[in-house]
Amino acid sequence: MSSFSYYDLLEMFEQPGCAVCRILQRDAHQMLDSILYERVTHPPTQNIFRACRGLCGEHGWQLTQFSNALGTAILYEQVAHEILTIMGEHSPGRVGQGIRRMFTQHPNAALADALEPTTVCPVCVMTDDAEARYLRLLTDHLGDAKLMGAYRASEGLCLGHFRQLLRVTEDIENSKSLINAQNVILERLRLDLLEFMRKNDYQHVSEAVKPNEANSWIRAVSRMGGERGVFNGRRKRN
Q1: Taking the domains of the chain in order of start, what are their residue ranges?
Q2: How far is Cα of residue 133 from the mean position of the Cα atoms in its chain?
Q3: Residue 100: per-residue pLDDT
């Protein structure tokens, strides 16, 4: 593991949100940028897009945010061509389809099966691999005072990544330190939520809502579900 990744994590802890989610967002952005500006006419890349029937919904929509309409069009024309080819080869009524229907309960089963992706979204594959590396890096440095100090001062990990980190952390003392830090961070968030709720009561509407209280409900969503676009081990691949 490179020291660069270690310092990346330290830097991410200084930013709002889950550090692991944030670094995965960055990695996904860099990969999508590379695909669009370096590999749209690369046959192996086009073959991957054909096989996975385009990127997963989340990463596909992220691709549209790069304002590279032509690159996106080139890649997805390949996907459309692949789907049209499959539909032409497996549509009901073609020669041989009658025999296949004898062994299926639905006339469209063969076509539906053929349209299933034969590989997964490449950005999902990359982020899954990176996620495992960063969690391993974290657990290897939970005894590091500098990193744990950055952890305690941060917003902690989202629930999904905290749960995954617990599963790969076997050292008892490191586990205690991790759980204590996450507990303090979560309690801090809960107090912000309680204050936000209290100050929205008609009896206390004259009290100013602090910024950390005002955005507490948004932070609560991201702490439990992860940052937008990162699936924390619950990814449903296409």
Answers
A1: 3-225
A2: 14
A3: 55
User: What residues contact residue 185 under an 8 Å CB cut-off, 6+ apart?
Assistant: 152, 154, 155, 156
Instruction: Give the number of other CB atoms < 10 A from CB of residue 179.
Output: 13
**Can you read off the two tokens belonging to residue 228?**
């937008």
89/48 Cα distance (integer angstroms): 20
Residue 174 tokens, joined = 């490191």
pLDDT tens string 95-137: 455 555 555 567 788 888 888 999 999 999 999 999 999 999 9
- Helix 19-38 and helix 3-13: axis angle, to 10°? 120
Q: What is the pLDDT of residues 64-99, one digit of tens each?
A: 999 899 999 999 999 999 999 998 887 766 645 555
- Phi and psi of 200, rounded to 5°? -90, -5
10 Å CB burial of residue 24 (0-12, 13-18, 19+) is buried
Query: What is the C-alpha to C-alpha distance for residues 210 and 216, in angstroms, rounded to an integer?
Result: 10
